[in-house]
Amino acid sequence: MFAGFFYLLRSRGLDVSLNEWLTLLEGMAKGLHGSSLTGFYHLCRAVLVKSETEFDRFDQVFLEYFKGVPYEGELPDELLDWLNNPAEDLNRSIEELKAKGFQDETLEEILKRLEERLKEQTEEHNGGNYWVGTQGTSAFGNNGWHPGGIRIGGQSRHRTAVMVAGERKYRDFRKDNRLDTRQFQMAFRLLRQLSVQAESAEKELDVDGTIRDTCDNAGTLAIRYKNPRKNTVKVLMLMDSGGSMEYYAGLCSKLFQAATKSNHFKELHTYYFHNCVYENVYTSPMLGWGGGESVPLEWLLKNFDSSYKVIIVGDAAMSPYELEEPRFNWSTRQYGLSGLQCLTHLKQRYPYLIWLNPEPMPARPDYWGQTHWKLGHMFPMYELSAEGLETGMKRLMAKR
Amino acid sequence: MNTTFTGSNQYVASSELMTAVNIAVTLQKPLLIKGEPGTGKTMLAQAVADALGKKLIIWNVKSTTKAQDGLYVYDVVQRLYDSQFGTNGVDDIARYIKLGKLGEAFSAEEQVVLLIDEIDKADLEFPNDLLWELDQMEFYIPETKETVKAKQRPIVIITSNAEKELPDAFLRRCVFHYIEFPEQAQMEQILRVHFGDLEENLVRQALAGFYWVRQLRDIEKKPSTSELVDWLRALVAGGVDPDRIVKEIPFAGVLLKKDKDLRSLQRALR
Question: pTM for the full model?
Answer without folding.
Answer: 0.58
